[in-house]
Amino acid sequence: MDFIRNFPFFSIILSLFSGPLSSILGGKWAKRVNGAVIGLCGVMSVAVLWYVCRTGEAFVYTMGHFPAPWGNEIRAGILEALMAAFFCAIMLLCMLGGEREREAEIESSRQNLYYIMVDLLLCSLLALIYTNDLFTAYVFVEINTISACGLIMIRRSGRTVEAAARYMIMSLLGSGLLLLGLCFLYDLTGHLLMSNIRESVQVLAAEGMYERPLLVAICLMCVGLAIKSALFPFHNWLPDAYGYSTVSSAAILSSLVSKGYIFLLVKIFCRVIGFDVFSGSKVIHVLFVFGIAGMIMGSVDAIRESDIRRMIAYSSVAQIGYIYMGFGLGTMEGVIASIYHVICHAATKSLLFVAASGITDASGGSRYFKDLNGAGRRNRLAGVAFTAGALSMVGVPMFAGFISKLFFSQAAVGHEIKMLPTLIALAISTVLNAVYFMRTVIRIYSPVKITASEEKPAKQEDGREKTSRMPENCREITMWQQPAKAVAMILFILLNILLGLNSEPLIGLIQRGLGMFS
């Protein structure tokens, strides 16, 4: 049974070496290897989750059997295993939902390159989740950035190259600030392992030593990761990156990449700095203010959009604001609500991007709202899936988004200063979410408006002509025409409803996992 302790290391190494293997394979075999690796990593993560739940304690895997401070460590607890398993499941569904678009939009000679990037991205996400060493985390942050940039520009169009360049510039800025913060922290403590750093920070905080340098280190790391996760106002790169990449890339970037950085920030709060030290600093007030600003401004930008993909991208800015607002409450309840929202947002946002691709397919490939009338009728499953994702984002009961907003409200109740701003921001953001998501749902189920010149005769079974009321660029799509996408959307819908109706076990795991952090 103790052999399961090797699984976190096996997951990282397996996904890392599957990249070079894919480089010598053709596109079809690289796709098969990628799917097998994601599935196997997910199975191993579930096994680790079962093991730590059974034993009731986290374990540390020492790399090369060298103790600290020379060796490197992997640490696995309930929260790490839960996030790893969830990330693998979401990535597998994203790849499944965007399979047809990848084959159509990416040159056959570059197909294996795409799967190399996905393999490396999975490796970096698992390493960020499991690592117990801050410098190792920084190395995989950079691997994550390069892989995500490759996923954006793989289509080789002018817009994707520009989006990738903007993404790379902002990400490198965030990485530089993160590295500066790590250097400050290493200078103060002399350690890179998270547990050792925390012990030193607790001593410094108790004795009141180096308060300002420690605050600077916390600020640099928070700002660096905030930039990389697109917290307002550092979000300008996000709409183009999500809007012009392939469907599976947009779904993975929005649901997983930014969440990997956020999970690293949670580890810094709770395992490196210590939550008591972090909550006692002024940084939480800054995160709270920018989180609320992101909740409002992201939704305002989404309302102004006429492109469904860019609208969903701006919605991600608002949802990232929710997460940082929860951190800014400075309570463990706020952190729990934020982690739960990370999971809900990952499940819902990937559903929206996959469903939006089905809607645009039924509208002649157009992503503009003026061309989407009736798309929910022409592609019924995509219309239902988008409606389910929209209801979740608005916060309708029975869906995941309702539960996360409820937890944010409960976390804010009783807070002397931040309760009223939080509740007001949640109310305003919910109304704004309803404006642009329900507007889109109404649009895709509205009758098609066409002019008399667009009407065209069609043959009936008896040979007589009848007038078609569908524009020439639109077409009916059934779930049997796109089976992989249909399976992905159905599973995403079920996952969203499961998170909305059965949240207590997941919240219990998150609470136990945070307890193991300390």
Which key features would you list for this structure?
two-stranded antiparallel sheet; single chain; 4 strands; mainly alpha; about 525 residues
Account of the protein in words:
This protein has about 525 residues and is mainly alpha-helical. It has helices at about 5-25, 25-55, 80-95, 100-105, 110-130, 135-155, 160-190, 195-205, 210-230, 240-245, 245-275, 275-280, 285-305, 310-330, 330-360, 375-380, 380-395, 400-410, 420-445, 485-500, 505-515; strands spanning about 60-65, 70-75, 455-460, 465-470. Strands 1-2 form a two-stranded antiparallel ribbon. A two-stranded antiparallel ribbon has the order 3-4. The longest helix is centred in the middle third of the chain and has 32 residues, at about 160-190. Mean pLDDT is about 85; it is low at about 455-470.
Brief digest:
The chain has helices spanning 7-23, 27-55, 78-97, 99-105, 111-130, 134-153, 158-189, 194-207, 211-228, 238-243, 247-273, 275-280, 283-303, 308-328, 332-361, 375-378, 380-394, 400-412, 419-445, 483-501, 504-517; strands at residues 59-63, 72-76, 456-459, 465-468. The protein has 518 residues and is mainly alpha-helical.
How would the blueprint of this fold be written?
Blueprint: H1 7-23, H2 27-55, E1 59-63, E2 72-76, H3 78-97, H4 99-105, H5 111-130, H6 134-153, H7 158-189, H8 194-207, H9 211-228, H10 238-243, H11 247-273, H12 275-280, H13 283-303, H14 308-328, H15 332-361, H16 375-378, H17 380-394, H18 400-412, H19 419-445, E3 456-459, E4 465-468, H20 483-501, H21 504-517
Antiparallel strand pairs: 1-2, 3-4
